From TrEMBL, chain A:
Keyword Transmembrane helix: yes
UniProt domain Cytochrome c-type biogenesis protein CcmF C-terminal: residue ranges: 314-640
UniProt organism field: Mesorhizobium ventifaucium
Limits of the Cytochrome c assembly protein domain: 88-294
Coiled-coil region(s): none
Protein keywords: Cell inner membrane, Cell membrane, Cytochrome c-type biogenesis, Membrane, Transmembrane, Transmembrane helix
Segments passing through the bilayer: 6-25, 37-61, 95-112, 124-141, 174-194, 206-228, 248-265, 272-291, 311-330, 351-373, 393-412, 424-442, 448-469, 490-513, 618-638
Protein name: Holocytochrome c synthetase membrane subunit CcmF
Biological role stated in the UniProt entry: Required for the biogenesis of c-type cytochromes. Possible subunit of a heme lyase.
Pfam family name, one: CcmF_C
Homology family: Belongs to the CcmF/CycK/Ccl1/NrfE/CcsA family.
Origin: domain of life: Bacteria
TrEMBL record, chain B:
Organism: Mesorhizobium ventifaucium
Domain of life of the source: Bacteria
Described function: Possible subunit of a heme lyase.
Membrane-traversing stretches: 108-129
InterPro entries: C-type_cytochrome_biogenesis, CcmH/CycL/Ccl2/NrfF_N, CcmH/CycL/NrfF/Ccl2_sf
Keyword Metal-binding attributed: yes
Family: Belongs to the CcmH/CycL/Ccl2/NrfF family.
Domain CcmH/CycL/Ccl2/NrfF N-terminal: 13-152
Name of the protein in question: Cytochrome c-type biogenesis protein
Sorted UniProt keywords: Cytochrome c-type biogenesis, Heme, Iron, Membrane, Metal-binding, Signal, Transmembrane, Transmembrane helix
Residues in the signal sequence: 1-24
One Pfam entry name: CcmH
Length: 663, 154
């Protein structure tokens, strides 16, 4: 089975070369037969990569320690779910998952792209094949997951305990679906540049793919943030870690792309910019892969000690980013610019959005790379950490967030900013009220906190205003309004939901950062502690045994007003004997949208235990907002699906409510 | 420091980090004076734990981070200003210890990029919009005009 997987991977590589070359050449000489090769080859390549992945997953599930990769990252006592997720909890396996998703997207284009013009479809598949070929070669040449050990060891070395968590089952696949999803937008852009033209079907195709990728990436980042929050035991939700930045940059650029693609689809303006943005977004995904995979992040010197993988990915990076940007430089002038618009218009607002988002992306990029550049140039070592990003990224986001509610309410081509401001009066009043309530009743000391809460309410109420205004609030009877609301295009709800989610996330961040409280203390069994109105009694430490670890479980009783136990929170210190590692499992109690978060520290000789306790108000909204954003993207996709699947049917089905012309 | 896309590549570091994990700030470190302790916490958040990937000493469990936290508190108790504490730590450990890079010539590009880019982008957009508006829309060709007349019934 394992050798079958290895062989399937080699075959997939050979097929991806065919996919990269034959349709491309076919499109040049206008040979229908050669162009038609792309589809079946892409589907077969996906099937072979799936087989290969299944072979590795089976080796993991059955604990086949004759495979070096399995031996290094698994243990027979692990629960089955962690055995399986361990497949991608390591370098080789995660690269295989990356390629699996890449070929999956290629197969999707092949399967659903029958209504695309043949040359465009052929070129897209060719570019997709070229990306696949390089990464398959990378795996085969430098990161073979199927290498065998002889003699086979009896027991494995265990998966890193931190990765033995449900988070590993969800986070990497979602993140990769997002990262790699942008490869489709990239392939479409490069294909358009090869052909030297962008037609209507190009615009109609790129937006849904951007939405899909963006939706998964949003979920992946939110999930990763929550995972880090509960697993790492000190309650932070975002660390501005270079590795996090590597996933955040494609998200920021992807968000910009999502917005500029709307302009292109509806008004056929910003074509060239959208195309460049699609290239940049996937380039940032590749850059993230390089940064993380090459080891260059820890130190330029670490990179130099084992450069094979790093240099290989650097070559891939140069080939695709350099190649596509060069192609862009040569061909962009052949593309025609689109429609005109007044600065105060929906298009204008979206341009502003793009300006701020790309600047923010560049800020994160330079903050991530600057230490590397300084180290390479001057041998000095500097750090760029959270304080830098808070000081630069924060101020860039504020004006953008303030502008968000205006965007969807402005008309295309030429908008009336005063009329829009009038419609937003209620949202503004709500935000002002939130500021006042915060300042007067919750925390008068922090202006930042009050304004932050106000901004969040501005976003939330702005999103609701969008729906209300487009349903005709104030101008028609309630009954008609309801009917109009139900008849609004799904994409209008999608926009409103996504912006609502943004507001919720903002509220969660402001709540946690500004109103969170914390206590660090030593506790004996039976002692109580109070934090922000909650009383906890430490019941003591109890030993327990897991499948492949032993733990000390600290039990805490959350006491009600009358002193009775309302619920029990446990936080434990686990010890994994195989890797000789200990982890802290935090204890979390969700109360409303807020959480009590506690984690255990060392036990002192007198029997007391160090306890760190946080009250994190509204913290769940940070990730809840992410879920709402995902729901928004899904809602928009439902609207688009009609368009992608059947452009001819579309003309009949949409005409009813053209969203663009609504006030 | 967190686990995400990098999973495997960070495992080694994580292993170092979590071996013998304790908690970051420990109760015995906390200063009696709340104002001084608050300053110590703020300063700790801007100082890097030298043996971790990207954690501040406030968050890190490493012994070295603990030593630094204690050092920061000793300097504060001795009456140093925030600035003096930072300078003292940098003189001992180098600029690598600062999570917030200094404003100096070498870091000008780092700190300047966001503002410069926003400005340049803004100017570019304004100029493009201007030049676009000043070029008149393309006139209809004779055939198009004829076709249009036909449609309009002139």
């Amino acid at each position: 089975m394992v050798e079958t997987g290895h062989f399937a991977l080699v075959l997939a590589f050979a097929l991806s070369l065919v996919q990269a070359l034959v349709p491309l050449f076919g499109a040049r000489i206008n040979s229908q037969k050669m162009m038609a090769v792309g589809g079946p080859v892409a589907v077969t390549g996906f099937a072979l990569t799936s087989l290969s992945f299944a072979a590795l997953a089976t080796a993991y599930a059955t604990s086949d320690f004759s495979v070096a990769n399995v031996w290094d990252n698994s243990h027979s006592l692990q629960p089955l779910i962690y055995k399986i997720t361990g497949t991608w909890g390591n370098h080789e396996g995660s690269m295989l998952l990356w390629v699996l998703i890449l070929t999956f997207f290629g197969a999707l284009v092949a399967a659903f792209g029958s209504n695309l013009p043949a040359p465009l479809r052929a070129n897209v598949l060719a570019v997709q094949g070229a990306i696949g070929a390089t990464f398959l070669l990378f795996i085969l040449a430098t990161s073979n997951p199927f290498a065998r050990l002889n003699p086979a060891p009896i027991e494995g070395r265990d998966l890193n305990p931190i990765l033995q968590d449900l988070g590993l089952a969800i986070h990497p696949p979602l993140l990769y679906l997002g990262y790699v999803g942008f490869s489709i937008c990239f392939s479409f852009s490069v294909a358009a540049l090869i052909e030297g033209r962008i037609d209507a079907s190009w615009a109609r195709w790129v937006r849904p793919w951007t939405l899909v990728a963006w939706m998964f990436l949003t979920g992946g980042i939110a999930m990763g943030s929550y995972w880090a929050y509960y697993e790492l035991g000190w309650g932070g939700f975002w660390f501005w870690d270079p590795v996090e930045n590597a996933s955040f940059m494609p998200w920021l650029a992807g968000t910009a792309l999502l917005h500029s693609a709307i302009v292109m689809e509806k008004r056929s303006a910003l074509k060239i910019w959208t195309l460049l943005l699609a290239i940049l977004t996937f380039s940032l995904s590749l850059l993230g892969t390089f940064l993380v995979r090459s080891g260059v992040l820890t130190s330029v010197h670490a990179f130099a000690t084992d450069p094979t993988r790093g240099v290989f990915i650097l070559c891939i990076l140069t080939l695709f980013i350099g190649g596509s940007l060069a192609l862009f430089a040569f061909r962009a002038s052949r593309l025609t610019a689109g429609g005109l618009f007044h600065p105060i218009s929906r298009e204008g607002a979206l341009v502003l959005n793009n300006l701020f988002l790309t600047t923010a992306t560049a800020t994160v990029l330079i903050g991530t790379l600057y230490p590397l550049v300084v180290e390479a140039v001057s041998a000095d070592k500097i750090s760029v950490g959270a304080p830098f990003f808070n000081l630069t990224f924060g101020p860039l986001m504020v004006p953008l967030l303030v502008a968000v509610p205006f965007g969807p309410l402005l008309a295309w081509k030429r908008g009336d900013i005063f009329a829009v401001a009038q419609r937003l009066m209620a949202a503004f009043a709500a935000a002002l009220l939130a500021v006042l309530v915060t300042a007067l009743f919750i925390d008068g000391a922090s202006v930042f906190a009050a304004l932050g809460v106000g901004l969040a309410f501005w976003l939330i109420c702005g999103a609701l205003t969008d729906i209300a205004v487009k349903s005709g609030l104030g101008s028609v009877a309630p009954g008609i309004m309801l009917r109009r609301c139900a008849g609004l295009p799904r994409s209008v709800f999608g926009t409103a939901l996504a912006h609502l989610g943004l507001g919720l996330t903002t509220l969660g961040i402001v709540g946690t950062l500004c109103f969170g409280t914390e206590k660090i203390l030593s506790m004996h069994a039976g002692e109580t502690v109070q934090l922000s109105g909650h009383t906890l009694r430490f019941e003591g430490l109890y030993p327990a045994q897991g499948p492949n670890y032993s733990e000390d479980r600290g039990r805490f009783a959350l006491l009600g007003a009358d002193g009775s136990t309302t619920s029990v929170i446990t936080s434990s210190k686990r010890s994994y004997p195989v890797r000789q590692m200990t982890t802290t499992e935090s204890g979390i109690k969700t109360i409303g949208f807020s959480q009590l978060y506690l984690s255990l520290g060392d036990e002192a000789t007198d029997g007391s235990v160090v306890v760190r306790l946080w009250w994190k108000p509204l913290v769940t909204l940070i990730w809840g907002g992410g879920l709402v954003m995902m729901a928004g993207a899904a809602m928009s996709l439902m609207d688009r699906r009609l368009r992608v699947g059947a452009p001819s049917r579309r003309r009949k089905s949409t005409g009813a409510v053209p969203s663009a012309s609504l006030p | 420091m967190t686990v995400r896309f990098s999973l495997a590549s960070l495992i080694l570091l994580l292993t170092l980090l979590f071996a013998g994990a304790a908690l970051a700030v420990r109760p015995d470190e906390v200063l009696a004076d709340p104002a001084l302790e608050a300053r110590a916490r703020t300063l700790s958040e801007e100082l890097r734990c030298m043996v971790c990937q990207n954690q501040s000493i406030d968050e890190s469990d490493a012994d070295l981070a603990r030593d630094l936290r204690v050092l920061v508190r000793q300097r504060l108790v001795a009456g140093d200003t925030d600035r003096q504490v930072i300078d003292y730590i940098v003189s001992r450990y180098g600029e690598f210890v600062l999570l917030k890079p200094r404003f100096n010539l070498r870091n000008a590009l780092l700190w300047g990029t966001p503002a410069l880019l926003l400005l340049a982008g803004g100017i570019f957009i304004v100029l493009t919009a201007r030049s676009r508006r000043s070029t008149p829309a393309a006139m209809l060709t004779a055939e198009e005009k004829a076709a249009l007349d036909k449609v309009l019934g002139n």
